[in-house]
Amino acid sequence: MTNPGPLIVQSDKTVLLEVDHPQAEEARRAIAPFAELERSPEHVHTYRLTPLGLWNARAAGHDAEQVVDTLLTYSRYAVPHGLLVDLAETMARYGRLRLDKHPVHGLVLTSTDRAVFEEVIRSKRIAGMLGERLDDAPGSEGTVAVHPSERGNLKQALLKLGWPAEDHAGYVDGEAHPIALVEDGWALRDYQKQAADSFWHGGSGVVVLPCGAGKTIVGAAAMAHARATTLILVTNTVSARQWKHELVKRTTLTEDEIGEYSGARKEIRPVTIATYQVLTTRRKGAYTHLELLDARDWGLVVYDEVHLLPAPIFRMTADLQARRRIGLTATLIREDGREGDVFSLIGPKRFDAPWKDIEAQGWIAPADCVEVRVTLPEGERLAYATADADERYRLASSTFAKTRVAERLVRQHAGEPTLVIGQYLDQLDELGEHLGAPVIKGETTVREREKLFEAFRQGEIDLLVVSKVANFSIDLPEAAVAIQVSGSFGSRQEEAQRLGRLLRPKRDGRTARFYTIVSRDTVDADFAQNRQRFLAEQGYAYRIVDAGDIPD
DNA sequence: AATATTGTAA
DNA sequence: TGTCCTACAATATT
So which residues are the signal peptide here (predicted)? Predict the structure, then answer.
């Protein structure tokens, strides 16, 4: 019972994908809705079947039968029977419980399974959120009232117990406010429309799209569906201004209808854009700006960059379960592992377009990722070996050998707009000096930054050295080449964001280059491996070359 | 009242 | 594993 398929499905819930197999791409696409990529070296990629992944697939309308069918279709060997049983059982756990509106009790939790129901209501964490036990609703095996204010906490707790509830309690419409898209000289792209529509049908949830694919537009389209007052939460003030600018340009909203609620301004308007920061600041331990949440009868809450949502916002979001919520992000991966909270409090993933698909449609540029390996010079090698663990990463990632390689790469791409990105200021200063390029870091004034960005945009200068400011400033100009010399300890989302900088389509349809310079045989290499995982999931393969092979 | 500076938190 | 960057609030300054 073997066929030459590209997958090997194992009973430890890993799924191996043979990358060079002719059906590999097809299989990757088929398993993407429910499997999570774990490692991605050259030949065989490892995916894992996790409960969260399977439940997300359920929420997106896939059933166990489809998942099983996909595995059987592409598997090379017989798929372990136990795994299939387990998979079906895990998927069946989703929706065994459901939340509904109730005319008398406000909100009720019902179950289709007596044992599950009894288990859940006896859980210590959950008991306090429940009201009185009611007569079984027709067709149910247990019904209990729920305090409406506990809707979010309950969902969070049930997910942790492994019995995620399906939320059918619906949403308040909020205060109506007319909002429509003004498609004037531009049009909503197919995938943007699909994303906004699938969000709307689901009621709340997350849309995953690559950087530069127009997430703001999806937000605007969602608002045009809701036609209600909207609270938009963003990571920083620059982003807040950008949202405002885009909304004025793309919708019937005028400047006066859009307020900014941040450190500098405290405007509350029918559409209000607030920073996460301002909501999470506390005085004497108490949150100071919670009034914003109650200031209006919001019909929609938009969470920009949901992968960066700070922990306290989860607590507030738990109280906002009656409002429609849309989360926007380029990656659902959180380095703090709170994906489950995003799932239970904002909602399941409603739409997801692989970067490569958007690339194929020409909305983002193709990119070529290259990992350049350097060897530490003898002296540094010794210093590295004897250094304390906490100094090793810095030593390995800021070796002078990298500066030399960067120089060669820069020369090779002379004339193309190039960014050199790193995390240690000493290293960046050194690079700036050797490459004869300006360095932009935190202490660079806004005026200076703008001057340099503008010169870069105009093509007057073609090389900038940037620190972590690159992670935050949205107005960083697009480039064709990026050279990463060091990065945070293993942040996948940082890597994704940096690559995202290059993906605006080039006028001549050229491929972007993303180099990452790594010291071999050091912790630098380990972290680089972790950082690359997310991009590998999106189908970006790193070519590995030796520094010696870069022509001078 | 608007703006600049400094310290703190995450 | 720990550096760097940002936003906010408070205070000082025009």
Answer: none
